[in-house]
Amino acid sequence: MSVFDLQDKVAIVTGGGSGIGEAITMAFARAGAHVVVAARKQERLDRVASEVRAMGRESLAISTDVTDPVQVDRLIKMTVEKFGRLDIMVANSGGGGFPPLEKATLEDWDQQITLNLDSAFLCDVAAARVMIEQGTGGKIINISSTAGINLNPGLAAYAAAKAGMINFTKSAALTWAGKGINVNCVAPGFTATPGIRKAGYVPSATRKDGTTVPPLLMPNEPEHVADTCVFLASEASSHITGELMIVRTMFHMERSNDVLRDRAKLTV
Q1: What span, in angstroms and rounded, lies between the C-alpha atoms of 81 and 95?
Q2: Per-residue pLDDT for 260 more than 50?
Q3: Which domains does the chain have, with CATH numbers?
């Protein structure tokens, strides 16, 4: 099982201060990696980084606006200065929220494309430059969403950006294959992040009749996405590149009518 180890690998996880990004960070640390966490809110990053260190791994918490190329370059530079290398980049930062399409402005549209697609471009390219210079390859993982595959009329710009990320992943994978860089994409379905739970969108695992809802009819947990990322970051996926891996339960099949009535307000 050593091919699944990330022992002493150096990883960056953007959006690493909460939710899916935090779960990826902790899963990487458990697998043996040193993890740099990046997001805008320093206090969240500091907490996650301290938890990584408590596991015996090294960590940096770097406040970063991943839509700013200067700050992304700084993130990469500080990582290499600390660890001497970069092995894994996870472009996870993003978020939803969009007005009714007929009321949306170009500014609304650009904000979502910048946050959810431009940020991945900046992080991927900056990471690839270092990996190419190292000459040892690396792993790049983009976190998309099933919103980039399914119909999402209430999240038009977010869905378009996530769809663009899927296609960009395939282009980057082909471009950098000769450099030993694997580029893959993970598309989570509805995931029970702490924010989603707090908003009350995660139902009980027990039905009204007292029976238990099977796990594949419940939302994803962040750890399900994180485990997929560990696989893609490890040597076990050395011949997988340019692929989309969907982490999705059948939650929508059973709960769409009563739980997802406000889906347009959610990031999935």
Answers
A1: 30
A2: no
A3: 2-265 (3.40.50.720)
